[in-house]
Amino acid sequence: LQALSLDIGFENPRLAVALPGGIMFGMLRRLSLRFSDHETANLVAELLECVDSPSLRQLSLEGIVMTTELLSAACRVACAASEGLTDLALSWLPSDRRHIQIDEGAALAIGRFLDASALLEKLKIGIPLNF
Would you say the pTM of this structure is higher than 0.70? Predict the structure, then answer.
């Protein structure tokens, strides 16, 4: 598997999904993950823990929240990409009209993430202006 694109969301917050033990993605070149609620953000963070792909070049994360766990897992994925990420997109799309607050852990994780992605050719970080 060289490319994986998932667009997931749970409409029932009591629903849970567990990833099978031992699953690993070691040959990915492109990874795109979209999530629409906090529960799926947690699932995406768990899924990122299963990615150990030295050839990963493109990573896209789009969702309603960027948690410290999610960003730390993405940073680990970027560090494991020995050839270096060349294309990174982080899009934070909150679902309601409230103030966006980035906690210290998330800010530090973003800094580590960017430090680990020194070979970037394309960088997109998106936060809507109307919030």
Answer: yes
